[in-house]
Amino acid sequence: MTELPSNATKRLKTMAISAGAAVVGVADAAAFDAHAPARHRPADLLPGARTVVVVGGAQPRAGDWVATSPWLLSTMGTTERIQGVGRRLAQSIESELGYYALYVPPGTASGDTPFLSLMLAAELAGLGSRSLAGPILNREHGFMYWSAVITTAPLEVDGPETAPACPAPPCREMWAREHTTPCLRVCPLHEGGCLAGRLEDGRAVRTGYDAARCNTRVHTHWVGGFQKVLEETLNEPDREKRKMLVYGDFMTRTLWAITYSSTNIAQCFECMRVCPAAHGLKEMR
Amino acid sequence: MGFFRLDPEVYARHKDDVLRLSNSFQRIDARGLSDREIAERLGLDEPTVTEIRVIAERDCYPLDEWQRAIEFKRKACRDWAAAALKRPDLKDS
Asked: Which among A22, A77, A268, B1 could bridge A73 via Cys, Cβ 3.0 to 4.6 Å?
């Protein structure tokens, strides 16, 4: 193993930004132990892991946020562009620094569980903090997509962010006025939505979250939706009714989404669409 | 070795506990347990817990909830566009 040059972390970060990342940070691999279960920690995936390099970017544009069809963001909001940066980082760490580098795959280890939580990685790398709605928000860029590389290289680590982006000032004002926030109002748990929470001393406190329902919204036309229609079809004794299910719009859209898997994974953005800290509404002509 | 099939009775008996303990639905204040840790706690073997967890993740809501998801997003998206662009006519009726 080669000696790590003193400016290696800085060079790597510069490379990530020039490759298209909006933000880049480094987390201590051991910091995951307190938050992630066994087999979902950096050293479980790459023995000897010391650090995790995290990049964020590829945010939706203003036009994506104001589009009138909810299906637009599910094709424009994609991790694909930032994943390319992650792969380049891994390549650079191995070829230029001579340390092992494992690009964290975007897929799942089993069921819906990821190999490594990219949200946790972003948080530990100081790139953002959890919002009341759930996603990690960066103070400067808001909602973004993440990619991570686990490495044995002893890079300089960044500490977690101390001042969260959530709640944003307009949300604090709204809470004082109406006792709700934009995300809680658009998707309220007590009215068949996913989110419950409050602001306490200016900080967001989540009191409830229906992850299973959130899954039906985020992955409507995805693996879960496919399994549900398949089950319904197999249970349907009438041949013509089976045909309606299999050829119908839900199944067709689901199969398109799965076929173009890398650009159709996330399919619900409503809590982020209304969030002032996620993107901020920029009025354009 | 035959294909692993989960006994539906075992699934029904343990699915709520497995989901509650697992990391499938992450919480901010506490980390979920691994399948092995859950197996130790419930007196099951790890492959059984993995299978229960994966099936239970999908079994929380019926297909109707997926349809409601479509309606929710369509309305929320159009309502936001109407507000953001100051175009009340875009609002979902």
From this structure: A77
In this predicted complex, what is the ipTM?
A: 0.76
pTM: 0.89
> Which of A228, A233, A244 to mutate: most B Cβ within 10 Å?
A228
The Cα A193–Cα A213 span in angstroms is: 7
User: Is A229 a domain residue?
Assistant: no
A284 in contact with chain B, both atoms CB, cutoff 8 A: no
As a dihedral over the C-alpha atoms of residue B50, residue B54, residue B56, residue B60, rounded to 10 degrees, the angle is 160
A100-158, pLDDT tens digit by residue?
A: 999 999 888 888 889 999 999 999 999 999 999 999 999 999 999 999 999 999 999 99
Q: Domain tally for chain B?
A: 2
**Same domain? B70 vs B54:** no
Q: Is residue A102 part of a domain?
A: yes
Would B37 be classed as within a structural domain? Answer: yes
Please judge whether A38 and B36 are an interchain contact, meaning their C-beta atoms are less than 8 angstroms apart: yes
Q: For chain B, what is the total number of helices (H) and then of strands (E)? A: 4, 0
CB–CB contact A66 B54 (8 Å): no
